[in-house]
From TrEMBL:
Homodimer. InterPro entries: NAD(P)-bd_dom (IPR016040), NAD(P)-bd_dom_sf (IPR036291), UDP_G4E (IPR005886). This is UDP-glucose 4-epimerase. Its cofactor is NAD(+). One of its GO terms (cellular component) is cytosol. One of its GO terms (molecular function) is UDP-glucose 4-epimerase activity.
Length: 319
């Protein structure tokens, strides 16, 4: 967004990020965003930010996002993800800001009956994290019903991976990664011993799970298009942000080995509870509505992830 000429104001409690990111952003763009450290549920802080800044649109990312953890700590997830959204919407309403882009997820499709997944497919969440995303979409629809002037973009991300090509910004999970890409990256660099491939008996090409991995820079550019759309007066919309291509776990492992020149040690184990066989996006609507298409392929994702990992072998603040 900075590169596209927007002025950016950030709010993050840094519970899953680092203040160091701001300097990295400045190194890449030549501009430092205005930044507030705080909780999105802090109503007084939100009021102060809306009163002191000129805000034309909101992009709401702040959330807890680990599916497994959400089963163990459901109240934390409803509190941050749903409570945070409500606090932000109330402050936005009071400040008369009605353009809103929301980070939704392919998880709202549950276990889709067929692939590729279209935006009009039925929604169905299978865990508390997914339910927070579904509830959030419902709350936002109600905001639109209550006041048709609201322009809301519901962006359903598939599997964001990779890093900025500079190697300065990337994924730095705290603790042992849950997700495939950061796990593979840490095995390749030698921080972790071996990848467990969860399930090799799915009805897919090679028996392992298939997902639609999307490069984070393509995803970021999708957000710029979404902001452009609502600022130009476009109506509310829901779109998938994916590449439209599905890759299996073993295909990802092989691509990462090629990009890194390292062996990614792995073993086939049983399925992970709650996982589905195959999920990838129909991306026609995003292309029609937003004139957006992902440009980067799996090798770009692996190469950029590997550059980030080699430049930051222990992540941003150490793993
Ligand atoms: N990564 C994925 O696979 C994926 C897929 C679909 C949707 N999403 C959604 O995209 C959004 C961003 O995800 P991400 O992968 O960049 O995760 P992330 O954890 O890197 O980003 C979320 C940010 O929110 C901050 N945060 C958490 N709780 C907060 C609070 N109470 N107040 C203020 N800030 C808070 C964290 O510090 C973090 O910087 C989330 O809403 C997530 O649910 C992610
Ligand atoms: O150590 C691992 C981690 C993952 N996988 C497999 O890799 C694939 C991708 O898994 P993961 O990276 O954990 O992503 P998903 O389970 O698809 O879920 C992600 O993508 C969803 C959107 O599609 C988001 O809603 C979730 O928050 C996000 O975690 C799946 O087949 C997993 O079984 C492994 O085999 N071993």
């Amino acid at each position: 967004m900075l590169d596209a000429g927007y002025e950016v104001i950030g709010l993050d409690d840094l519970s899953n990020s680092s203040i160091l990111v701001l300097d990295r952003i400045a190194a890449i763009t030549g501009k430092k965003p205005i930044f507030f450290q705080g909780d999105v549920r802090n109503t007084a802080l939100l009021e102060q930010i809306f009163a002191s800044q000129e805000i034309s649109a909101i992009v709401h990312f702040a959330a807890l996002k680990a599916v497994g953890e959400s089963v163990v700590k459901p109240l934390d997830y409803y509190n941050v993800n749903v409570g945070g959204l409500i606090a932000l919407l109330a402050a936005a309403r009071d400040a008369n800001v009605k353009r809103f882009i929301f980070s939704s997820s392919a998880t709202v499709y549950g276990n889709p009956a067929t692939v590729p997944v279209r935006e009009d497919f039925p929604v169905n969440a299978t865990n508390p994290y997914g339910r927070t995303k579904l509830m959030s979409e419902e709350i936002l629809h109600d905001m639109e019903l209550a006041n048709p002037e609201w322009q809301i973009g519901y962006l359903r991300y598939f599997n964001p991976v990779g890093a900025h090509a500079s190697g300065l910004l990337g994924e730095s999970p705290k603790g042992i990664p849950n997700n495939l890409f950061p796990y593979v990256a840490n095995v390749a660099i030698g921080n972790l011993g071996s990848l467990k491939v969860y399930g090799s008996d799915y009805a897919t090409r090679d028996g392992t799970g298939v997902r639609d991995y999307i490069h984070v820079v393509d995803l970021a550019q999708g957000h710029v298009k979404a902001i452009d759309h609502v600022l130009n007066g476009g109506p509310s919309f829901t779109v998938n942000l994916g590449t439209g291509m599905g890759y299996s776990v073993l295909e990802v492992v092989r691509a990462y080995e090629e990009a890194s020149g390292r062996v990614v040690k792995h073993e086939l184990v049983g399925r992970r509870p709650g996982d589905i066989a195959e999920c990838y996006a129909d991306v026609t609507l995003a292309s029609q509505l937003l004139d957006w298409r992902a440009k980067r392929g799996l090798m770009d994702m692996c190469r950029d992830s590997w550059r980030w990992q080699t430049m930051n072998p222990n992540g941003l603040e150490g793993i």
